[in-house]
Hints:
There is one protein chain. Helix 4 (about 115-125) links the parallel strand 4 (about 100-105) and strand 5 (about 130). The chain has helices at about 5-25, 30-35, 80-95, 115-125, 135-145, 190-205; strands at about 50, 55-60, 65-70, 100-105, 130, 150, 165-170, 170-175, 180-185. The chain is of the alpha/beta class. Helix content is about 40%, strand content about 20%. It has a single domain (about 5-155, about 165-205), classed as Glutaredoxin (3-Layer(aba) Sandwich), CATH 3.40.30. It binds nickel (II) ion. Nickel (II) ion (NI) binds next to helix 3.
Amino acid sequence: MNRRTMIIGAVMVLGMLTVLALYIPGIRPEPMQVRAVEGEAAIGGPFNLIDQNGAAVSDLDFRGKYMLVFFGFTHCPDVCPLTLRMIADAYAIGGPMLENVVPIFISVDPERDTPEIMGEYVMNFDPRIVALTGSADAIKQAANGYRVFYRRAAKAEGDTGDDYMMEHSGYVYFMGPDGRYITHFSPKTTAQELAARVRQETSYTNR
Ligand code: NI
């Protein structure tokens, strides 16, 4: 091996190590590590919305409690009902360990999702779910804080009806008693997995 080959080899190895160093910590960040890193993952933030009883509710009302925050809409045919069912099942599994955890469903479709409709909708799953809606601006502020994407879907060709769909991110955000992000769950998470993870986290404070 000549000198030139050795240098090229060394540069390639360094390059691969750099790529590995960039990607390995991102594969499965441990929630406790995520919390420990300053300024990491600024997911969450203030919201000022209306609950199913017509009361003004802000994020500050939930300080001291954990939150499971999920954005969606009541006309959703699949992801929203499945996720709310999964959350309700997790509460059935988790029992008293989940008493200090508030499930919060925030509409991305305030045009149709009035507080009354939101209230009726969550009763299909679990009456403990706090259902929030509000002005378009208030929803936008809440969604931006959680980095949630949503928009009204384009109509399919030949679709002349008034009905419309909303596209939206489907993650469930698990937030701590201080309002800080702990972790999030994908729509594929099972009720058992969610209950186990939440119990693991809340057992520190419930002990
Ligand atoms: Ni949905």
